[in-house]
Amino acid sequence: MPELTVTVPLGGRDVEMRKPADGALVVLARITRTLPDKIENDEMSDAAKEKLVRNLGTLGQIVESMIVKDDDRDWLDDVMISGEVPAEDIFDAIRVAGEKFGLIGAPAGPAKKAASVRRRAR
After folding, report:
1. Maximum CA extent, the chain
2. Alpha carbon distance 17, 3 (integer Å)
3. What's the rounded Cα separation, in Å, for the pair 57 and 55?
4. Torsion over CA: 11, 106, 60, 55 (sign)
5. Could you tell me if 104 and 41 are in contact, meaning their C-beta atoms sit under 8 angstroms apart?
6. Backbone dihedral region of 121: left (phi > 0), alpha (psi from -120 to 50 degrees) or beta?
7. In whole angstroms, what is the distance from residue 27 CA to residue 38 CA?
8. How far apart are the C-alpha atoms of 115 and 64, rounded to whole Å?
9. Which of 1, 14, 25, 74 shows a CA-CA span of 20 to 30 A to 116?
10. Closest C-alpha among 35, 34, 28, 12 to residue 103
11. What pLDDT, on the 0 to 100 scale, is given for residue 52?
12. Local mean pLDDT, 10-residue blocks, the chain (122 residues)
């Protein structure tokens, strides 16, 4: 079975991306929920800074696994380091790829009723 890929615009270039693994989608969702809206180095604790760096490294691994061509990976490294392409553009490319794969914007399945919780009397 051929690999499923889509072409996504990124930094003025068309980049071929593969569909992320299901596990990568779970990690991606968890990480994007925990990223701060604004990064203020002076106000962040050391633990928060370590978590942010770890999460950004994991996001980098997911993006790298999605990009098909080595030339595109090398180019992305260069333009990210130089600042020509901001991190927000990467998130946008992931979003566009997700939409093209049908992972984003698709209606969710029926919601399950939550189980009732029994509390013990004290």
Report:
1. 64
2. 10
3. 5
4. positive
5. no
6. beta
7. 21
8. 39
9. 25
10. 28
11. 76
12. 84 94 86 70 74 81 92 94 88 88 66 57 66
